[in-house]
Amino acid sequence: MRNIGILTSGGDSPGMNAAIRAVVRTGVFLGMDVFGIRRGYQGMIEGDIFKMKTTDVSNIIQRGGTILKTARSKEFMTDEGMAKAYDQLQIHGIEGLILIGGDGTFRGANKFFEKYTIPAVGLPGTIDKDLSGTDFTIGFDTAVNTAVEAIDKIRDTAEAHDRLFVVEVMGRDAGYIALNSGIACGAEDILIPEMVTDINDVLCRIDMDERRKKTVHILVVAEGDDYGGSKKVAETIMARFPKLDVRNCVLGHIQRGGAPSYADRVLASRLGHAAVTALNNGTTQVMAGIINGEVVYTPFSNVIKGTTPVSPDMLEMIRVLSV
Ligand SMILES: Nc1ncnc2c1ncn2[C@@H]1O[C@H](COP(=O)(O)OP(=O)(O)OP(=O)(O)O)[C@@H](O)[C@H]1O
Ligand SMILES: O=P(O)(O)OC[C@H]1O[C@](O)(CO)[C@@H](O)[C@@H]1O
Ligand SMILES: [Mg+2]
């Protein structure tokens, strides 16, 4: 393969730049021309494509965001949009694609391959870690560390005022950021989409904490939790415990930015290198991931929407440690 394209798609995640760097440098090392496609599939449709040099990826390994920019493209979900994207690949002579994104990005890639047989290899770039086929996704570690830093600060002020905080972290369909930041910050409770939230149980645990004279309560809620978000949880608690001083804090997009952690830089570098090598060897429609320390390739169709159930031992541990 002579010419390959690379794009980032869906929500950005810290470490995407490190992945772009690894892809460009591996491609050039293998004698390929690597074309950057800006703004994900939307840029592919619009022909926002340029040839990348190894120096274009200098000094980016430590930077958050994505130098290629990203987008969610409604147009790519139409036949006309895909046809325009294919035309642009033909114009630039691009024979294969490296896609850094999440489940939606890979779903799109499979549809595109069915129509136009352009081979693609993916890298898991999402803070949510809502993909099977890899132990970690690029950006997850950094996002959890950002959440931990923020929740630690919230605990300081909560302690000063004897307050209860309901903190919402990202995770549209997966509770891994909530689970891991909650454990790391000693949260009193953690609400995640993988478990049906019984609000009466949550209220009971607060009641028990009150009897034990706990003065600070931190509840970490994943945005995708089935009860309806942290605001509703906070309102329900206020209604049941009018004497408690309750605050709600939504951490939001700060979790998507910032310098990637060392773990995300290493993961991105390994997967970027592995993905280009695989594409060059004729592998297609797979996502490169790392399981138990080894690079593995999982077909896009198996990667799509995979959250692993949270182990009951982990939940039991959270209850014990928050006594
Ligand atoms: N069924 C589909 N057909 C064609 N294209 C799709 C399809 N699903 C998703 N895409 C394309 O992939 C893009 C990215 O998908 P999505 O917005 O779901 O993000 P993602 O890749 O899952 O990342 P994240 O969830 O981490 O933000 C979409 O904006 C769309 O252009
Ligand atoms: O970029 P947007 O549209 O605000 O998307 C937010 C969503 O993206 C994610 O950050 C994943 O990329 C989710 O955690 C969150 O629900
Ligand atoms: Mg997704």
UniProtKB/TrEMBL annotation:
<comment type="subunit">
    <text>Homotetramer.</text>
</comment>
<keyword id="KW-0460">Magnesium</keyword>
<feature type="binding site">
    <location>
        <position position="103"/>
    </location>
    <ligand>
        <name>Mg(2+)</name>
    </ligand>
</feature>
<keyword id="KW-0963">Cytoplasm</keyword>
<dbReference type="InterPro" id="IPR000023">
    <property type="entry name" value="Phosphofructokinase_dom"/>
</dbReference>
<comment type="pathway">
    <text>Carbohydrate degradation; glycolysis; D-glyceraldehyde 3-phosphate and glycerone phosphate from D-glucose: step 3/4.</text>
</comment>
<dbReference type="Pfam" id="PF00365">
    <property type="entry name" value="PFK"/>
</dbReference>
<feature type="domain" description="Phosphofructokinase">
    <location>
        <begin position="3"/>
        <end position="279"/>
    </location>
</feature>
<feature type="binding site">
    <location>
        <begin position="21"/>
        <end position="25"/>
    </location>
    <ligand>
        <name>ADP</name>
    </ligand>
</feature>
<feature type="binding site" description="in other chain">
    <location>
        <begin position="126"/>
        <end position="128"/>
    </location>
    <ligand>
        <name>substrate</name>
    </ligand>
</feature>
<dbReference type="GO" id="GO:0005945">
    <property type="term" value="C:6-phosphofructokinase complex"/>
</dbReference>
<keyword id="KW-0418">Kinase</keyword>
<comment type="similarity">
    <text>Belongs to the phosphofructokinase type A (PFKA) family. ATP-dependent PFK group I subfamily. Prokaryotic clade 'B1' sub-subfamily.</text>
</comment>
<dbReference type="GO" id="GO:0006002">
    <property type="term" value="P:fructose 6-phosphate metabolic process"/>
</dbReference>
<dbReference type="GO" id="GO:0070095">
    <property type="term" value="F:fructose-6-phosphate binding"/>
</dbReference>
<feature type="binding site">
    <location>
        <begin position="72"/>
        <end position="73"/>
    </location>
    <ligand>
        <name>ATP</name>
    </ligand>
</feature>
<feature type="binding site" description="in other chain">
    <location>
        <begin position="170"/>
        <end position="172"/>
    </location>
    <ligand>
        <name>substrate</name>
    </ligand>
</feature>
<feature type="binding site" description="in other chain">
    <location>
        <begin position="214"/>
        <end position="216"/>
    </location>
    <ligand>
        <name>ADP</name>
    </ligand>
</feature>
<keyword id="KW-0479">Metal-binding</keyword>
<keyword id="KW-0547">Nucleotide-binding</keyword>
<dbReference type="GO" id="GO:0046872">
    <property type="term" value="F:metal ion binding"/>
</dbReference>
<dbReference type="GO" id="GO:0005524">
    <property type="term" value="F:ATP binding"/>
</dbReference>
<feature type="binding site">
    <location>
        <begin position="102"/>
        <end position="105"/>
    </location>
    <ligand>
        <name>ATP</name>
    </ligand>
</feature>
<dbReference type="GO" id="GO:0042802">
    <property type="term" value="F:identical protein binding"/>
</dbReference>
<dbReference type="InterPro" id="IPR012003">
    <property type="entry name" value="ATP_PFK_prok-type"/>
</dbReference>
<feature type="active site" description="Proton acceptor">
    <location>
        <position position="128"/>
    </location>
</feature>
<feature type="binding site">
    <location>
        <position position="247"/>
    </location>
    <ligand>
        <name>substrate</name>
    </ligand>
</feature>
<feature type="binding site" description="in other chain">
    <location>
        <begin position="253"/>
        <end position="256"/>
    </location>
    <ligand>
        <name>substrate</name>
    </ligand>
</feature>
<keyword id="KW-0067">ATP-binding</keyword>
<feature type="binding site" description="in other chain">
    <location>
        <position position="223"/>
    </location>
    <ligand>
        <name>substrate</name>
    </ligand>
</feature>
<feature type="binding site" description="in other chain">
    <location>
        <position position="212"/>
    </location>
    <ligand>
        <name>ADP</name>
    </ligand>
</feature>
<dbReference type="GO" id="GO:0016208">
    <property type="term" value="F:AMP binding"/>
</dbReference>
<dbReference type="GO" id="GO:0030388">
    <property type="term" value="P:fructose 1,6-bisphosphate metabolic process"/>
</dbReference>
<feature type="binding site">
    <location>
        <position position="11"/>
    </location>
    <ligand>
        <name>ATP</name>
    </ligand>
</feature>
<feature type="binding site">
    <location>
        <position position="163"/>
    </location>
    <ligand>
        <name>substrate</name>
    </ligand>
</feature>
<keyword id="KW-0021">Allosteric enzyme</keyword>
<protein>
    <recommendedName>
        <fullName>ATP-dependent 6-phosphofructokinase</fullName>
        <ecNumber>2.7.1.11</ecNumber>
    </recommendedName>
</protein>
<dbReference type="GO" id="GO:0048029">
    <property type="term" value="F:monosaccharide binding"/>
</dbReference>
<keyword id="KW-0324">Glycolysis</keyword>
<comment type="function">
    <text>Catalyzes the phosphorylation of D-fructose 6-phosphate to fructose 1,6-bisphosphate by ATP, the first committing step of glycolysis.</text>
</comment>
<feature type="binding site" description="in other chain">
    <location>
        <begin position="186"/>
        <end position="188"/>
    </location>
    <ligand>
        <name>ADP</name>
    </ligand>
</feature>
<feature type="binding site" description="in other chain">
    <location>
        <position position="155"/>
    </location>
    <ligand>
        <name>ADP</name>
    </ligand>
</feature>
